[in-house]
Records
---
Amino acid sequence: MWRDRDVRLHDVSEPSERPASSPEAYAEGRDLASVVRDGLAEALTDHQRRVAVALLVDGVPIDVLAERLGSNRNAVYKTLHDVRRRLRAHLEAHGFTPEGSTKGVTA
């Protein structure tokens, strides 16, 4: 099924407008989505972005993507590892901590 399917980079759509449990949760989710979208554009190389979108957004199987890129499974895993590291650093630089809260937010 994936053999002849085109794997393209596309814009990541806005998050759905489903109501959040609270206005604060909605605002934080929207902020997080914005920072992730910016991170995809700013913190990743073109190759890393292509791999991230194909695997994480489009759900392309890793073996299919490796074949399409003329690479192997281990190299794609390494790229995905680098994507996660760079996105994590980007999120932390913009106030999102590993615990899932933002800097400056008080309880």
Note: The first helix runs from residue 23 to 42.
---
Amino acid sequence: MNESLQTSATSTGPALTLDDLFRRTVARQPDEIALTDPPNKQRVTGQPPVQLTFAQADQAVSAIAAQFTEAGIPIGSVIAMQMPNTVEFAVTALGALRAGLVVALLPQLWRQSDLTNALNRVGARAIVGTARIEIVDHGDIALNAAVEAFSIRHVFGFGDNLPEGMTPLEIVTGGMDGWVPPAVSDARRPAIVTFDVTPEGVRAIPRSHLQLISGGLAIFLESGLPQGAKLLGTMAPASFAAFTSQVVTWLLSGGSLTLHHPADLNVLDMQIAESNCDTLIAPALLAQRLAQGDLLAQTSTISHVIGLWRTPDRVASSDDWQQPSAFTDVYLFGEAGLFAARRQADGSPAPILPGPFGAPRTSAGAKPIGEVIITPKATLALRGAMVPVSAYRIPRGEMLSEAPQPDYVDTGYAAQVDRARGTLAITAPPVGVVGVGGYRFVAQELDDWAKRLNAGAMLTALPDQLNGFRLAGRASDNRRAREALGELGLNPLMVEAFRERSS
């Protein structure tokens, strides 16, 4: 099965969609567990946790797809989603794809300003959210953003006490056997849209089913995950890396996916100990922190750990992995792409070589999934089946010359090759972009927002061991600064940069 999937991803054979992968597993093992909610879902969203078999999940996917179709959303339209890491997210995303729609993933911390910009940028026809996530009223946030996005015609939501104007959705596990999708999906057309922040600003990055499967294969093959893997995913579902590392690898393996809404470490400890999962998917620094607590060594069921690095320039200096489980480093470069490298026998990071990556170790002559390139500017670039080159191209009207544009995406990360050993070193993050956890900001925009507060206000990025950077703000009245930024609908990371600090 792996070889046929890779053939599809490299566009030399039949083109599979994500729904094709899902349906194959439904037909093969309808009564096996497919999706499991976080045990603390009641606290996060107010809804009880659920567990679905593949047959139940298939019914739920069709029910969501039917509701979108009956609402009159045209095939090929963009439907935005801002949701927690729960079963509803996976079912809704697959339901939208089954209905022939394109899913735009919205980060959970985005508020009205960012949401409105993103919805208008992609011309979204609908948005799906939840009544609340933790203590934040996401129902009102979705409605307010929809008011300012002229293309929005429908606002859907999960949960109780939805605000007026929000159409309710729910998980339905029966009665959909006779429903037929409105059109046959094309694996080469856009399936997912994510949003990247480059020095030039926010970009919408569409990807086809083939590109998504290629990204999933890069992780799946390098980490050596087995068929039927039992995955525990802890990533917030709003980026290419999170979607491929969790949803796509789940579909590729045909196993089960247990979800953790980040980040309650006590709940995560319990899930690791009790869920019987064999694979943990988590931010790499979180995985290393768990390893220091010896929890993974005590939990014999975890045999694979997939660690995602939002700061790939720090992999080389990270601690060696001294656990019985295999550890795979996944290097993330915003929304441009990723590659994976399984750690060596001594637990140290594997050397990275320029050139092709992603071919299975056991398949001689298999085609690579992607390629790592060093540009003339001494930066790292990616090309290959997963890389959306056209989304990063400079518009013709903005080009300084008529020279042909490259067939790769420059990630902006400074990199160099050791001439003696031929290995690659990633030395610094992109200039002009600040990464705070899973969120990126244009450095100049931070200064521009601070200037809108009052004279002498400052908003800057400081180095942070866990997140790459953290935001820190200073104003003559921090409380009023927080209120002003909140009223403007800005990301809480920017708002809370002006929180009061004790001595």
Note: The longest strand covers residues 190-198.
